[in-house]
């Protein structure tokens, strides 16, 4: 904003154009200084490069002998790890295993988990609990019986048998 005000202050003649014309073009273009920077440096065409052939080392000569009959596709082959010796079988096994893991494992596995019937019978136990509460209300019984199990069926130790043992409840 400060730059805009400075440039307006410097150009008194452009100020009248701005006041009379309200369009965006007439506001901005008189304030901008039109410059075109062109590089006129001298082109150097006399630079050249000379490639001198290097003599191959013994190790490099042995490697070129070894891989002389190898085609480019075999040379750059990286195994997927399923069948390192056979390129086609390796490719096939990789794609089949990935298809099985993604398509069958994730898609069908998610479908089965989503629509699996009543895991650990949770829905059944809730329904049975509500039916039992309704039965107890109709018969006038307490909702939760204080004697959940019959006392005759359980045997507790006597006070002499317990002795000085600390009981934590």
TrEMBL record:
Membrane topology type: Single-pass membrane protein
Main location: mitochondrion
Keyword tags: Electron transport, Membrane, Mitochondrion, Mitochondrion inner membrane, Respiratory chain, Transit peptide, Transmembrane, Transmembrane helix, Transport
Record's subcellular location: Mitochondrion inner membrane
InterPro entries the record matches: NADH_UbQ_OxRdtase_ESSS_su (IPR019329)
Cross-referenced Pfam families: ESSS
Domain of life: Eukaryota
PANTHER family linked: NADH DEHYDROGENASE [UBIQUINONE] 1 BETA SUBCOMPLEX SUBUNIT 11, MITOCHONDRIAL, NADH-UBIQUINONE OXIDOREDUCTASE ESSS SUBUNIT, MITOCHONDRIAL PRECURSOR
Family: Belongs to the complex I NDUFB11 subunit family.
General function of this protein: Accessory subunit of the mitochondrial membrane respiratory chain NADH dehydrogenase (Complex I), that is believed not to be involved in catalysis. Complex I functions in the transfer of electrons from NADH to the respiratory chain. The immediate electron acceptor for the enzyme is believed to be ubiquinone.
Known partners and oligomeric status: Complex I is composed of 45 different subunits. Interacts with BCAP31.
Protein name from the UniProt record: NADH dehydrogenase [ubiquinone] 1 beta subcomplex subunit 11, mitochondrial
Phylogenetic lineage: Eukaryota, Metazoa, Spiralia, Lophotrochozoa, Mollusca
């Amino acid at each position: 904003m400060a730059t805009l005000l400075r440039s307006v202050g410097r150009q008194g003649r452009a100020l009248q154009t701005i006041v009379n014309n309200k369009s965006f073009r007439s506001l901005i273009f008189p304030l901008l200084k039109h410059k075109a920077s062109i590089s006129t440096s001298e082109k150097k065409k006399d630079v050249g490069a000379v490639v001198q052939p290097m003599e191959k080392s013994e190790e490099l000569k042995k490697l070129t002998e070894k891989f002389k009959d190898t085609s480019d596709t075999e040379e750059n082959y990286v195994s997927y790890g399923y069948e390192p010796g056979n390129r086609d079988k390796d490719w096939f096994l990789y794609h089949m295993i990935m298809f099985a893991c993604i398509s069958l494992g994730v898609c069908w596995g998610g479908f089965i988990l989503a629509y699996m019937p009543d895991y650990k019978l949770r829905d059944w136990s809730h329904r049975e609990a509500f039916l039992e509460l309704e039965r107890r209300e109709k018969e006038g019984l307490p909702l939760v019986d204080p004697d959940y199990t019959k006392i005759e069926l359980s045997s507790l130790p006597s006070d002499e048998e317990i002795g000085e043992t600390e009981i934590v409840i």
